[in-house]
Amino acid sequence: xxYIILGAGGIxxxxxxxxxxxxxxxxxxxxxxxxxxxxxxxxGDVVEDHNLGRQHGAKAVGINKASVLADHVSSVFPExxxxxxxxxxxxxxxxxxxxxxxxxxxxxxxxxxNSSRCFLETLLxxxxxxxxxDGGNDLDSGQAMLWRRAGGSDMCPSLxxxxxxxxxxxxxxxxxxxxxxxxxxxxxxxxALANQAVAQAMLQLWFTQVLNKPVDQxxxxxxxxxxxxxxxxxxxxxRLTD
Amino acid sequence: xANINRPVTDPLGRTIKYADSPRTGxxxxxxxxxxxxxxxxxxxxxxxxxxxxxxxxxxxxxxxTLSHQDRAYVKAAATGGMDEPQTxxxxxxxxxxxxxxxxxxxxxxxxxxEPYIGGQRVSDSTILSAGDILLMKIPMKSRG
Lengths: 242, 144
Known about the structure:
The complex is a heterodimer of chains A (242) and B (144). Chain A is built from 5 helices and 9 strands.
């Protein structure tokens, strides 16, 4: 089974180790849902000084984020098979991603833009079986969202059908290989606590609504988090588009 | 799959019926107090805010404002009264604070049968009447 961390930045960094722990040593209640796990870590970015408040360490500056994160996870779980893709996923850069884009995959979307989310949704729509748990945040709040399809049937609606604003990305939401990342900081600051809270919500959403109930429709398909209010709220999103 | 067309309840948990919610107002909510306009349950209030349209005229200035964190209302300069069947056009994409207008709804189907929500997609030519409620979608956070 392929488990993909798409984006090894603030959220991806915080989701990697606990995710690896679950797929390496699944609790008994979900053991049958995880077989022969392969963890893929995908990112074309390199660690920069301004990242260090939320992710990675000073020794990693200048090194590819996916590679650094894979080394860290491997040091904790050397028994886990890990693959690294040092490339962004975008409409102009699909070739490096053909090996992990297979039916049955579980992808943890940790990207920082809606162009990538929309493109991933287009790619996943070709498959009959997949799970996509997505995370996003701003300074101090965010959300985890779920799109899952099993046997060709959607168990819950897609992200853009619930959130049509994603289909109209702003200039800040361009593909990472098609924008100037240096402008991101400090105009849109984030807190590591928000990244961590969203990563935790993503894992909870996946564990409770997918792993623990593989044949059922999820009871909720979103968790909203707000660290200023100490809040994590499960919620059901409904389809807004046809 | 569940859809958004599901019963709407008032702040006391009662299902809103057409007879209780004529187009000129909505059930048990005082239009003179905009802070109460979002006190209708049944909508995912963390990802939507409700915007009430009160007095409107074809020529009014439409000035949406965000009052506080998750509550929005339309501050409309009005010359008409609540009972006057005035209408106005609202463009899809109108924003209030961080929210974007994607849907309009009103309480009570035209034939008076069931309440509905999200029944009408807002387009550039959508005409709203006094008492209609707009659902403003709050965009999801996109960084990571």
